[in-house]
C-alpha cells in the first residue's frame, strides 16, 4: 500500500465511530449488559452501543400465552443480582407502572411471561445505547488502529470496537427425522404457536411432538380454547418435571460452572445430555394443572386427547407424508419399550423440539481464526466468557457445553455480565460472588 493510501485508510479509521463495547443482539442477556453499562456511560467511563436486527424488543412472541409465567423468580431480572439499587430493576418497573402493590398482594414470585417481556421493553426504551432495526453483518479484525474489531452494521456503516459482546439468541431446533415436514402447510414450531393460533383453532386434530414447558403449555391451551382432538407424543420415558429443588438450583452457581468447565469435553457433553430434565422439563405446577384439566374434561364422558410417552416421531416415507386427498399429515411413531410402530394422521403438527445455539454465529465468521474452538468446532468459552486470547471478544448464552446449567439461566445473567465488565474495565464495577453454594462439587 502506498503512503498516500495508508494515510487515507488511517484517516478513515480515525473518523469512524469507536466504542468500548459493541453488543450484538439485544435479548435479555445483552439488554442486561446495556443496563449495567448505563451508569458507566453517564460517568464517562465507557462508550457502548448495542445492535438488534428486530424492530423492537419482544421475548418469545409466539409463546406469550395469557397465563404463562417465567420459570424463575422476579429477582432474576436484568440487573438485580448485580445491582439491587438499579433503576432498571423489575421492582422499579412495577413501581413506575403503578402495579407494585398489586404484585405484592398477588404473592407470586413468578412474573407473567408477557409482563417480563414488557419489562424488558420498558428498560430498552430508556437506553439510548440500544439500537433496533440494526443488523450486524460482520465482526472482522481491524488491520489498523488501536481497536481490535470493526463491526459492519446496517444503517450505521462500519464502527470500531475495543470489545464485542455477542448476545444473539437461540434458534428453533427440529430433529433431522422431521425436517421433511418443515415445508408442509400446517406444520409449525412452537416458537410460532400464537402466530398460527387462529388457523389451528379450525383444525379437527392437532398433534404435539416433543416435551418440556412449551409443549405442556400449548397442550393445555389447545384443550381449553379449541374443540380439536389433541395428541401429545414425547420420546422421553415420561412427562418429566423440571427439577427445582434448592440443592439442585446450586448447579447454576459459580462453583458448579467452574467445576463443570474443568471436566473433559466428552464428560461435559455426557452430563449435559443426562441433565436436560433439570431445566428443560415441565414445571410441576403445570403438570398438576394439566391433570386437573383432564379430570374436568373427563366429567363430560368424552375424550378428545391422547398422551403417549416413550414415543418418537418422524416423517412417514415421502410418498405417504401427506395424504393428497385429505391434506392430513402422516407421522411415523415408534414406541421404544415395546418396539412397535404405527402411522398417525393429523391435520396439524406442532414441533415442541426446543432451540439451539449456533456453533459459530455467521457474523463472527470473518474473525473465526481468532476464536478458540473445541474438538467439535464449538466456541471454547473461557472462564470470563471470552473466546479470544486477548479478552476482547465475549459471548453470552453460547456456552452450555462449557458451563452447563449456568449458561441459559436468566438469574445468573447479571453475574456473567459483572464478570465481563470487570475484564473490560479492569476493576470490579459490581461485586462478583465466587462462593454461593453450600455443597462441594468435584472429587478428591
TrEMBL record:
Source species, domain of life: Bacteria
Catalytic activity: L-lysine + NADPH + O2 = N(6)-hydroxy-L-lysine + NADP(+) + H2O
Keyword field: FAD, Flavoprotein, Monooxygenase, NADP, Oxidoreductase
Keyword Transit peptide: no
Enzyme class (EC, first level): oxidoreductase
Any one GO MF annotation of this record: L-lysine 6-monooxygenase (NADPH) activity
InterPro entries in the cross-refs: FAD/NAD-bd_sf, Lys/Orn_oxygenase
Gene3D superfamilies attached to this UniProt entry: FAD/NAD(P)-binding domain
The keyword Magnesium belongs to this UniProt entry's keyword annotation: no
Protein EC: 1.14.13.59
Family: Belongs to the lysine N(6)-hydroxylase/L-ornithine N(5)-oxygenase family.
This protein's name: L-lysine N6-monooxygenase MbtG
Organism annotation: Corynebacterium camporealensis
